[in-house]
Amino acid sequence: MKISIISFSQSGYRLSEMLYWVLKERCHEVTSYTKSKYTKKVLDESQLEEDSRDFRNVKQFAKPVDESIHEWTGQRFCDSDAIVFVGACGIAVRSIAPFVKSKKMDPAVVVVDEQGHFSISLLSGHLGGANELAEEIAEIVHAQPVVTTATDLNDKFAVDIFAKRNGCYISDMSLAKEISAAVLAGKQIGFASDFPWLGELPEELKLCTGEEEEKPELGICVTTGYLQHPFVHTLYLIPRVITTGVGCKKGTSKETVESVIRRACDELLIPSVAMEQVTSIDLKKEEQGILEYCKERNLPFITYTAEELKEVEGTYAESQFVKEITGVENVCERAALLGSNKEGKGRLIQRKYAQDGVTVALAMKKWSVDFE
């Protein structure tokens, strides 16, 4: 997690120092800032304790903030996963207010008082991870964690936390809120899944296989597509488990690559958020149209040699022309399946789809829902 810490006083500066070093040791990417002229002299070398000599350069650990706190916060909303204010809640609230947009976009915001008594999850408790970060910080500084999300307080199933832990896209945040409200009201939520699961279903969920005479109107469906509609009001949770194999003529535009991939996905009503990666043959590793498509969607682009593709077992659509150019009779299907096999046995769910000089195939990796 990319964390930005800011302090406003001498006491806060000292506390932020502890957080900086410990969070970095725990593999977080941490940057510390200070917004006070009094903190610049607080760690004069003469003030360092004898057992703190290893931190003689600690005066430079925090960057001074010369711009307004409004400007600083706006920048951090763009470049950080989490912001930790070491100071008063009022400062944090006024600072973040102009930039708050939605659960899906906002970074986690945690407030720690300068004496380290409380660690407060202020914004994006679930999806942003503020609840977990507040508890981690509380453990570091021996503070009391303050978490106010209702499902946590009542020890109930939280669909947004469940989705985040399983790496799933939430199709409708408004419906997710309705599910949380229903859970808190003691109602049972339907559950359907195209995937097996580990652990036991929470008591708030009722497994529905499609054979029940009666099932809840409100339910969750873990799937890669929108083909089925098991409940009157269905919240789709989409895991990123699809590998898209692509082949194309040299010089094919990004727009054409995008259009053909979209049409191939539409055959199975698969949304782009289910895509984990794009794969092809190494002859295409510099193909601008594919590279631009992947960059725009923050998708890895992985290529394989003809020899690696030949080793993929199975029966595939053959093209003598493709074989003459690449050395293998099919690129998209083999590349898709090879990519999906990296984390277990994958399977083709969409065979070669060809249009406008682009070929696309879709494969799904082996994956399980985790309730543990």
TrEMBL record:
An example GO BP is: cobalamin biosynthetic process
Q: Which residues form the Cobalamin biosynthesis central region domain?
A: 157-239
The residue ranges of the CobE/GbiG C-terminal domain are 243-363
Ranges where the Cobalamin synthesis G N-terminal domain occurs: 72-152
**Database matches in Pfam families:** CbiG_C, CbiG_mid, CbiG_N
Q: What is this protein called?
A: Cobalamin biosynthesis protein CbiG
